[in-house]
Amino acid sequence: MKRNLIISALCLLAVVSCKQTVPASVPATIEDGVIVLETPAREPGQTSALGLTCDPIETVRVGFVGVGGRGSSAVRRYTFLDGVEIKAICDLEQSKVDKNIATCTDKGLPAPAAYVGEDSYKQLCERDDIDLVYICTDWLSHVPVAVYAMEHGKHVAIEVPAATTIDECWQLVNTSEKTRRHCMMLENCCYDFFEMASLGMAKAGLFGEVYHVEGAYIHHLSDGWDSSECWRLDFNMANRGDNYPTHGLGPICQVLDIHRGDRMDYLIAMDTPSYNGKVAAKRFRNSDECLDGDHTISLIKTEKQKVIEVQHNVYAYRPYSRMYQLTGDRGFANKYPCEQISIKEFNGHDAVSAAIGDSLKATYLPAFVNEIQDKAREVGGHGGMDYIMDYRLIYCLHNGLPLDEDVYDAAEWSCICELSRISLDNGSMPVKVPDFTRGDWNKTQGFNYALAK
Ligand SMILES: NC(=O)c1ccc[n+]([C@@H]2O[C@H](COP(=O)([O-])OP(=O)(O)OC[C@H]3O[C@@H](n4cnc5c(N)ncnc54)[C@H](O)[C@@H]3O)[C@@H](O)[C@H]2O)c1
Description:
Elements: H1 2-18, E1 28-31, E2 34-37, E3 60-65, H2 69-78, E4 84-91, H3 94-105, E5 113-116, H4 121-126, E6 132-135, H5 142-151, E7 155-158, H6 166-179, E8 183-185, H7 193-203, E9 210-218, H8 222-225, H9 231-238, H10 246-255, E10 264-271, H11 276-285, E11 296-302, E12 307-313, E13 325-328, E14 331-334, E15 340-343, H12 354-364, H13 367-379, H14 385-399, H15 407-414, H16 416-425, E16 431-432
Helix pairs in contact: 5-6, 6-15, 7-10, 7-12, 9-11, 13-14
The structure holds nicotinamide-adenine-dinucleotide.
């Protein structure tokens, strides 16, 4: 009896002690060797934003916050879109605001209002003649601006990654669910031609059951480090992990129907030491420390046992690659270094010929792309995909349709930044991926582009 009591007490101690806490932006514990992050409860009145639709907007009135490199390109592209008005431009620097106002007036459009200064985005968001706040600031200010804008009744579009921590991801989800405003992350790589065509092929079953997918952001950025304002180098020096996962992840998550029939279950990450990151830290910041390893790999297992592989390397002397690879039980698609499609019916041993590949791509591109691709290529923005992304966002707002990329995509694709960091800091331990839909990931069946009837 006494012996049994002692054993019970020891077992209890073991259970208590295996529930260690792990530093993370939300409460986290280790359960059975897996790091589990707490899911916050919904507030009263807050409901799911899956398939969120809002009243159609005939003319979408836009305010831009952050008009450096990326924001200026977006303002220029928006001058080519029908059914939009550029109402306001905001930045920390007057000269950038002036330059973007000139982009509009040079095309004969009315001059947007100017907002300059760190908090001036608040005045922009408080205006009652803006429908959409388009955010292209550095990573650390995406979420404060987006939350403030949604709380003031605006839809938001946020550059990538939408958020850098799990806590910020929840802020976006909770605010969108409470305010019933759209929150789209501007993941332009989902709109590149090969990605959209092979998504169409995957949906049509040409590759059979797609069970392994790869994506990456491999881009030698060291020319961009050469600036006292390069906030990205500062961020990478201070943060280990895949700090830019969404270009690789977005298109492959659409293929796997993530939160539309499957979900990311858990992640493990590994990284190399920092080599060129440290060289940049020394050269541009006179620092010996760079926490971001040069190459980071995250492996993610889905609920349906599929495997996702995502890589990040912005330091290596190697050609640009987003990898983008789909493997199914009847076929395969690969984008880098060269496009390859192989399908069992066409002799799955080799890639199909260029002629068959071109014909497949033309057949499986979504029909709406055929209507706008000439203009998209002419306006440009990474070869046209940026314009297609803008076109789809505005089309869905005009027609009161759910967006292609919803707030759960923004959270799921962005949360890999902190999840990879947590796994790395704990010896590559598995980390559960939060279910930002809070149990609804299987309610929608399959990704699709909403179209007006
Ligand atoms: N999707 C893509 O292909 C792509 C490409 C490049 C950059 N990006 C993303 O775009 C965003 C911006 O990157 P960038 O290269 O243009 O950076 P950038 O430094 O050139 O521009 C950021 C701008 O935001 C402004 N800003 C910062 N805080 C602000 C605030 N509180 N209010 C108003 N303005 C503020 C800065 O003054 C600056 O002009 C980042 O999230 C980046 O990851 C995406």
